[in-house]
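Aim 2 progress update. The chain analyzed this quarter is reproduced below.
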Amino acid sequence: MDNEQVQAAIKELQDAMVVMAHMEARQTDRLVRQEKEIEELALTRARVDQSVLRLREESAVFQRRTEQNLAEISDKLNGWIGYVAGRNLGEGSQG
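Predicted structure tokens:
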């Protein structure tokens, strides 16, 4: 190999190293962006999980109140049915 060939090979290697360094920098930037996205997704997931838990708790409270209200309404309705049935029995025995 003569001097020109050596210089050309050196230049080619230098160019290849510049390209590789550029590619590595782009990959590093991409990895950093992906890590940030993963962190943001994890935070979002945590917020969603908290919201779901809160909604489940609120739903359970609402369901308990609804069941309590239904039980009270059933008791009142049964009372009215008994009252009306008693009045009808009383009216039937008078006639």
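The CA atoms of residues 73 and 88 lie 22 Å apart. Residues 3-94 form the longest helix (92 residues). These observations will guide the mutagenesis experiments scheduled for the next reporting period.
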